[in-house]
Amino acid sequence: MAPNVIIRRAAPADLPAILRLIRQVVPLMNASGNFQWTEEYPNAAIFEKDIAQNYLWVTYLGDQLAGVAALTQDQDAEYADADWDAAEPALVTHRLAVAPAAHGKGVAQALLAQAEQEARALGLRTLRVDTNSENAATQRLFPKLGYRFAGEIQLAFRPGLRFFCYEKQLA
């Protein structure tokens, strides 16, 4: 990744750039058959809540927002259907997005590396993430970064979609 990379917690001032990034990403996702996100989700209210709770991280390449991810301990109830111990505390990556202009520049990897740092800082040994079954890019990325496939679930708030779960244990 380029030396002018900044990864930090998101601030309210980042919200307009985050929403522009999401407006760029959603049509590309939908065009590839991935309907995990829509014009309604994720939205400003969700990102405002993530920022207020110190969950949201941003990556900038120079002065351009390149990526965003929420790093939380929130696990959807349906996570109990995956091949892992859902009762085990974990850091979970949600709402991971990379600007189209930043694809291939290591932005997602940097955000997932930040998730590892956050997990360690919180005393957690487990990382989790889910992705739409139609998101081929993340299905290639997660195993490359040491995540194991942990099964398929459906999420009540996204009916009709299938999600693949991935987990990584930290040493």
From TrEMBL:
Major enzyme class: transferase
Entry keyword set: Acyltransferase, Transferase
Domain N-acetyltransferase: from-to ranges: 5-171
Molecular function terms from GO: acyltransferase activity
Domain of life: Bacteria
Record carries keyword Acyltransferase: yes
EC code: 2.3.-.-
Protein name: GNAT family N-acetyltransferase
Pfam families cross-referenced by the UniProt entry: Acetyltransf_1 (PF00583)
Presence of the UniProt keyword Transferase in the record: yes
Transmembrane segments: none
